[in-house]
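User: I'm preparing a small set of examples for a lab meeting where we compare how different chains pack in three dimensions. I only have the primary sequence for this one, and I'd like the structure in token form so I can line it up with the others. Please keep the answer compact; I'll paste it straight into my notes.
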Amino acid sequence: MSLKAANPLSLLAEAIRKSVPAFAESFKAPERYKILYGGAGSGKSHAVARRLVYRFLNESVFNRSSGKPLTKHTILITRKVNRTLKRSCYKLIKNIIIDWCRKPSLQLNVKDFNFNSTELTITHTNTDSQFVFSGMDDPEKIKSIEAITTIWLEEANEFNQEDFEQLDLRLRGKHNCKKEIYVTFNPVSAEAWVKKLFFDDPIQGVYTLKTTYLDNLHIDDEYKQVIENKKISNPRYYKIYGLGEWGTAEGLVFNNVKYKTIKIEDVRHLEFNQGLDFGYTNDPSSFNQTYIDLENKKIYVYDGFYEKGLSNSAIFDKLVSMKAHRSLTTCDSSEPKSIDSLAMKGARVRGAMKGPDSIRAGVDYLAEFEIIVNIHLVEFKKEFDNYSWSVDRNGKTLNKPVDDFNHFIDSLRYAVEHHYIKRKTTRLNID
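Assistant: Understood. Below is the structure token output for the 431-residue chain.
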């Protein structure tokens, strides 16, 4: 491609800066570590994705105006769990590339890109530059990736500091480009490793930028109103996801949760339970497999799924793939048709009993245990990090949880429901 081809790319760079002005300075920052955090809907992920595709094109696909040799990019995009990447970062980067290939001025051909949804790679076939998507739950794959030029940690709250340090060490060697690590997240907890490492006592070479939904030129008034409604309905949510301020443990329902790798041989002797909360368009369907140690007051959340858009057939297929359909599952009884559908397909299912004050009874029962969540269940962690008590207009804490971030927690209540209902019945009989 001729040198003149750089001009359209410069126009594209200017268009990116104008579309995401809040992030323009971060793209020029010389620091190795670019920490982009703040509220929901601020455009962090989209801005970083566009920046990375631009670098990929400018430094690899196009001849640079400086005349320097081209960079063979290997851009690693990672989340804690590999299965979360296909629906998020991979799809986002792919869509940006396809969209830009449709711009005649850029003279890009989508046929020059190999989109491998199985291996989760996007390769420019003429330069061999790649986007590689890999979760930190597959460390051997991470170690096998060579000559990494750029790293993006999306949803950094899912990681721990050891994960980050391993990735940081992978970004080395001589390249014809600036080496960068992008870190994006919502500031859910002031105790998080990201705050300690990049804010409280920061390492060298850190650039930080906080943005909120008010910085995003592309969100509509309806979405803004959804966030602003949280000022009353869920003040903690608004503080974190609206204003982008650091959250604290104050107001959280559960402070008894730990996250670590759970091995089946360590729990298979315990009582086994399954719970399912139905969702579809706006809410995820959430399923858990849980082992309960009544003697030592511990609950082990071993496995599960958490996904929007699942039909009853898709839920059943997932249960079969996990060999979970033959074990009894307690389901949300508000959807009897869904329960019947799963039963007709061959799943062992029953409706939860629920009843008056069942939510508070279930929450109180779970609070008596140490809850240990398998480290790959990052969606479940997000709920525990955000499930909080309601407050009134005067800021007084109420005796009921906010109806938000509770789909997995509902499924967990259903899984162990027979225990606290049995206890309640026993107490009533005694009385």
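A couple of notes for your slides: Residues 1-6, 426-431 have pLDDT under 50 and may be disordered. The chain has 15 helices and 17 strands.

User: Perfect, thanks.
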